[in-house]
Amino acid sequence: MTGLVVCVVVLAVAGAYGVLQRQRNGRVRVRGRDGSRRLGAAELGEELGDRATLVQFSSAFCAPCRATRRILGEVAGLVPGVAHVEIDAEAHLDLVRALGILKTPTVLVLDADGNIVRRATGQPRKADVIAALGEAV
What we know:
- The protein is α+β, with helices and mostly antiparallel strands.
- It has one domain (28-136): Glutaredoxin (3-Layer(aba) Sandwich).
- The protein has helices at 2-24, 41-44, 63-78, 93-99, 126-136; strands spanning 28-30, 52-58, 82-88, 106-111, 116-121.
- A five-stranded mixed β-sheet has the order 1-5-4-2-3, covered by helices on one side.
């Protein structure tokens, strides 16, 4: 009987964790652990956008990364002065560790000065990205 109770408790905890992760995936939120970290062209390998920059951390075998690349490219094309920079997380482990990137895709929204104003883990919705740019611009 004790084994059955333990099994039910473990399944309940795992189910609650799964629901929490599904709700958080792709949600654009205010800065995370990176605090007031500022990124520049030297760290990104490309110039910042005039008004804002969408930074995407990707990996080679990440299926949601391809969809995120498409979404961010469309948004950067729609909003003048916004650049999209994609960074290979495996090739930039020092930056990944410094920013606390734990999964791909992770999207950072930078203002014109390179300050991180928003962050999303997982595939964000196009409307959420556009709304996050409203704060950065």
